[in-house]
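Lay summary

Proteins are chains of building blocks that fold into shapes. Our project writes down both the chain and a compact code for its shape. Here are two examples, one after the other.
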Amino acid sequence: MPLDFTAIDFETANSSSASACAVGLTRVRDGRVVASEGWLIKPPTGHDRFFELNIGIHGIRAENVEGAADWTTQLADLTAFVGDDVLVAHNAGFDMTVLRRACEVTDAACPPYRYMCSLQVSRKTYQLASYRLPLVAAAAGFLDFAHHDATADALACAHIMIDAAHRAGAQDIVELAMLLGLRVPRIPVPAAASTAVEAVAAA
């Protein structure tokens, strides 16, 4: 199998995991970046206040997302870009929680993507004083990007995974996980949705 995956990065408006205000996506095919996109998101109602702390990190303000698509609307574009790929993110627990929680608060069906964490991969691959995204990306040969710009962060994440796979001699994401002793888990389906699926299957 080829080294195919999609790297993803979310920025949030506040401390709520559901407050997605930007997403960046990078598609990798056969170990090469073939597409990169990103867009602003209007956070879900009730999770749409912009904290100064978050603004200080990514520079996105409430007025910047006034004309942006809301979570449910943009989710179709996100899933169209990702397709059936394994998702990769730096500190994937954060990004997968944003995806899951934003879907929960908007009653949207969260795709049960499989995913892998480039932070875990980097700790198995490089000897660094810190495993923050810019430092790991530099070790992978990807320099001088706009950290906390979601599109740039997703691209940096993709380059880390490509370099790590090359160093490990892995042909695909699953083999890379196996060689490094890591898992490729799946975003859990909410209990209610899981019960509904089981009921349909039993009918």
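And here is the second example, written the same way.
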Amino acid sequence: MLKACYSSRYYAITHTNSMEKLTAVAEVLEQDQLADLVDPESIDPRILYSIHDPAYVRAFLTGKRPLATMQGFKNWSPQFREAILSIQAGQLLATSLALKNGISANIAQGFHHAVYAHGNAYCTFNGLALIAKQFPHKKIFILDCDQHGGNGTAEYSLTMKNLYNFSIYGLAFGCTTNERSTTRPIHNQKGNFDQYSEAIVEGFEHAIDWQADLIIYQAGMDCHQNDRCGSKWFTTEMLYERDLMVFKLAKKYNIPIMFVLAGGYQKLETLVPLHVNTFKAANEVYFNTLS
């Protein structure tokens, strides 16, 4: 069965449903037996100093404003802090599980907008850069299919030689290109799924050429046509096909893959099934379990 990192500590009340959706997705996965949930415990906060400005890490740990809430969550709380620390621990455990088993997941959301000095756009710490830092002898390839470009990951890729950012997006969000950061914008009004599919194939070509040891798939659902950030042409069925394509290619080329939920900004009753579909696709490809 697919192993997915999750703990009840992931839950935190915020002014959005961004954290609440994690628990809602986990409950469906457990009920429908789509994943074996693994508790990652909590990360040693000192590890975060290796990827972020110590002043920012200290501010977040103590709730000191404005840095503690600069990522956009208005109300800092000890519950929120513990949720973030557990989610970051999940990034590292899920990576180990993917390298061992070929696939895993962390039931988590924002990472790719966080930069060295501070959090940004609902991303508190950059858990993608964290993986590259903690697995220095592994080449970590980010296949970012969030609707927003992974600007934070692009920034980290400038200095982390084992981190490659490949970002497919409808909204650039300041994501830049460099030697290890490739961007493929797909227009949110005039684009189509053929263009998106071609970008995914190109992403895998880059991963293979770079000899990636692990792909981290940001399976964002904010691309969905009914999302306030979404692309009008991107249907539920297309998102499922996107997920199937990613998992089939990872399995075909025998590249371990770890995936996270990434963005999604609809009401929970419509958003949760979209995220659950990613797990259904993973099960279909890796465990011959039809959705």
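What can we say about the second shape? Helices lie at 20-31, 54-62, 78-101, 127-134, 151-157, 193-209, 236-252, 268-286.
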